[in-house]
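Risk register update: the risk of archive-format incompatibility is retired. Evidence:
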Amino acid sequence: MSAANYLSSEDQFLCSICLDVFTDPVTTSCGHNFCKNCINEHWNTNDQHMCPMCKKVFISRPELHVNTFISEMVDQFRQSAQQKTSSSEQQESKPGEVPCDVCTGTKLKALKSCLVCLVSYCETHLEPHLTMSGLKRHQLIDPVENLEDRMCTKHDKPLELFCKTDQTCVCMLCPVLDHTMHKFVPLKEEYEGKKVELKKTEAEIQQMIQKRRLKIQEIKHSVDLSEEDADREIAEGVQVFTALKESVERGQANLINTIKEKQRTTEKQAEAFIKELEQEISELMKRSTEVVQLSLSEDHLHLLQSVQSSNIHHPPPTKDWTKVSISQSYEPTVVRAVVQLEETLSKKIKKLVKAELKRVQKFAVDVTLDPDTAYPVLILSADGKQVHTGKVEQLLPDNPERFSVNACVLGTQSFSSGRFYFEVQVKRMTAWDLGVARESINRKGNITLSPEDGYWTIWFRNGNKYEALDDPAVSLSLKSQPQKVGVFVDYEEGLVSFYDVDSAALIYSFTGCSFTEKLFPYFGPCPYRADKNAAPLIICPVRVN
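Archived output:
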């Protein structure tokens, strides 16, 4: 029997005992085939060695050998069956996959689509495109649906060119009939160019992703730092308030002890006075009894002689009690305790402000004056660190940045995030303005210094008046006249603080500010009465004490 006949029927490879494809097939002398294990087990369980097919009985148990030819045919049958099963499983079209356009009945999965034929082929129907010389030149791509979309709707030809002028895909007839004088390139060339652009775009996107991942790490790091700062601030705050609480409690305990001690002294004094008064009362009562007894005597001579010989008309010696009193006032004690507590609190507050000033000085920035913003009467130093008022206006261009009426000037540097700090000497000046201003402030005409108009400033007027120009303005009572003023801004926190640098005292803080644009340092040396206000505002280098 030929191999072809064997492969044509599965029944040829079935064991008649187990009814399955042969495993180690053996042939008996009567010419029938069985699995080696099947025939051995059959003979092991029976008394006779009989062929299950023809019933021939063997006198002795035959020696069995694997039939090599049958075994090879079985292997080929198994492989063929497996390939058919595998091919069917792999090629059968599933929802969402491109089906073969040639298959009838069950549509198999397409492996390729032909841009020339505009047909999608499964593995079987694709074979001519892989073997026939004429079809080999056709352009094959991964399977796609709607191949008709790759045809020119106007000329019914494949889209093979790209019009650079109109940025569209066209067929070979379009350049002649509809896109005359346009620039064309083959689709493949434009495809390669677009792939390069897409690769570049992908690289840019990946770079953007990387930047955002780094930003996430930066934000997380900032949160960690913020948490550390918060823990440190809480610890310091608890320490400070614990110390203040202990000071208050000690002051309260001292006040109570002082008052109680004073009360005990008062009670002892009162007891002494009462005892002395009781003794005088006793002496007076004794004298009263003597007087009464003598007044009852009817012996004229005895009464007169007794009166003459004694001091019965005079009371016994006593103290003048009219000016004697017990103190009942504790007000001075309370006032002294409160004043002492205030002094203690002032010392602690000054210590805290000094530490705070030292911290904000670490955010010092180099600030210079911007001559393009200066009011014409102001005179700036060559290094941009000093400004003072002149007596006449200079001829300067009226650019949009320049203040036209008010004597002020901005810093060159702007800030739109983070923290920054700078110091300005105001020594020997009788009037000045200091602070920060947002970029969009009005610089023409009279200006109003207020947060609503974009200014966060304090000023000094008439040699003795300080104000924070908040909404409304706040009059400031300072213990000493600042010689150098520090300005600190925390953009995200919305905070603008002013410090007396030399005395390490907080002058004023604007809190809860909402900053949405660039901030510039603001300086106003005040030009009026220039002869009395000739000293300059000086931007000083920051030295951390």
